[in-house]
């Protein structure tokens, strides 16, 4: 693996925290770290006869240089041996990061910021990046337990295999245990992302639980054979899916999820569970897209 870890920088406390996380990820992978800052052109109308907007004249360059210098300082303090490169460009942050994701091993962003990369969760940008990025996207949020496990959301879908592989790789790199959580309810037969048990439906609960346990076992078994160094807990929970994962994230150092589960609509690139985790998990969330 030689592709760098890319991190979006805007100078906010959240983005600087993302820089530190990205530096650790780069060090674990033995790859370089790429600090990226993008700023869009102002949307205000320039009156006739006025010179076009120039970032240098507007003092933007000096501000950005200071931001990137501080980001690089944080990165070097966190991971002294990592090779660091910078890129400052004019463009919409989400589009710049999407392009960067094509040659990255991982894209890291903060959860709140100054209106650029860091403010991803305040609008639709994080959802767009997680849905369209060409590599895993790690959103830094919450207060992770550094001694906790990597938490994997298991849905048993073919698209979710990429997330399973990423979770095992992260657990190996971090020297952490892996908790594979699969939540089920009486909607599991028809809609994996349902709202909970539909009590008016007659369901053979014992049979359904056995089927969900089998799905969890069949998903994890081949990966555990490939990664015997990882201690795995297979956790089957009868619960609504989103609350189960959000609660479990309180004791995790990282939550890994696929972009879209087996109950999602085919046309959607990011499922409702993944979106909920991006907004409410108690630890960083990695969204891993499967093959289309």
Structure summary:
The chain has 292 residues and is α/β, with parallel strands linked by helices.
Structural features, described:
- With 292 residues, the chain is of the alpha/beta class.
- It folds into 2 domains: 5-45 and 54-140, Rossmann fold (3-Layer(aba) Sandwich), CATH 3.40.50.620; 150-288, Rossmann fold.
- It is 36% helix and 18% strand.
- The chain contains 8 helices and 10 strands.
- The protein has helices spanning 13-29, 60-78, 93-100, 125-132, 161-174, 205-226, 241-248, 272-280, and strands at residues 5-8, 33-39, 84-90, 106-110, 137-140, 150-153, 178-184, 232-238, 254-258, 285-288.
- A 10-stranded mixed beta sheet has the order 3-2-1-4-5-10-9-6-7-8, with helices on both faces.
Question: Layout of SSEs?
Answer:
Elements (H helix, E strand, L loop, with lengths): L4 E4 L4 H17 L3 E7 L20 H19 L5 E7 L2 H8 L5 E5 L14 H8 L4 E4 L9 E4 L7 H14 L3 E7 L20 H22 L5 E7 L2 H8 L5 E5 L13 H9 L4 E4 L4
What name does the CATH topology of the largest domain carry? Rossmann fold
Structural class: alpha/beta
* Apparent shape: elongated
Number of strands: 10
Radius of gyration: 21 Å
Summary keywords:
292 residues, alpha/beta, Rossmann fold, 10-stranded mixed β-sheet, 36% helix, elongated
């Amino acid at each position: 693996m030689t592709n760098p870890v890319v991190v979006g920088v805007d100078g906010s406390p959240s983005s600087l925290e993302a820089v530190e996380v990205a530096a650790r990820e780069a060090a674990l992978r033995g790859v370089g770290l790429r600090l990226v800052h993008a700023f869009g052109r102002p949307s205000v109308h320039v009156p006739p006869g006025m010179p076009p907007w120039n970032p240098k004249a507007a003092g933007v360059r000096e501000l950005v240089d200071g931001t990137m210098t501080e980001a690089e300082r944080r990165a070097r303090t966190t991971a002294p041996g990592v090779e660091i490169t910078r890129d400052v460009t004019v463009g919409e942050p989400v589009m710049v990061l999407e392009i960067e994701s094509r040659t990255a091993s991982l894209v890291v962003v903060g959860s709140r910021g100054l209106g650029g990369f860091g403010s991803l969760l305040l609008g639709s940008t994080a959802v767009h990046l997680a849905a369209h990025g060409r590599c895993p996207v790690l959103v830094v949020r919450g207060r992770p337990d550094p001694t906790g496990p990597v938490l994997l959301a298991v849905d048993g879908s073919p698209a979710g295999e990429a997330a399973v592989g990423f979770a095992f790789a992260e657990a190996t790199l971090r020297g952490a245990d892996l908790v594979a959580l699969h939540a089920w309810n009486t909607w599991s037969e028809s809609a994996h992302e349902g709202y909970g048990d539909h009590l008016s439906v007659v369901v053979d609960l014992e049979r359904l639980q056995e089927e969900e346990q089998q799905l969890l076992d069949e998903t994890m078994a081949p990966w555990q054979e490939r990664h015997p160094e990882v201690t795995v807990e297979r956790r089957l929970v009868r619960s609504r899916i989103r609350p189960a994962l959000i609660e479990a994230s309180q004791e995790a150092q990282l939550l890994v999820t696929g972009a879209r589960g087996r109950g999602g609509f085919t046309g959607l690139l990011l499922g409702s569970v993944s979106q909920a985790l991006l907004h409410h998990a108690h630890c960083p969330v990695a969204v891993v897209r499967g093959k289309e």
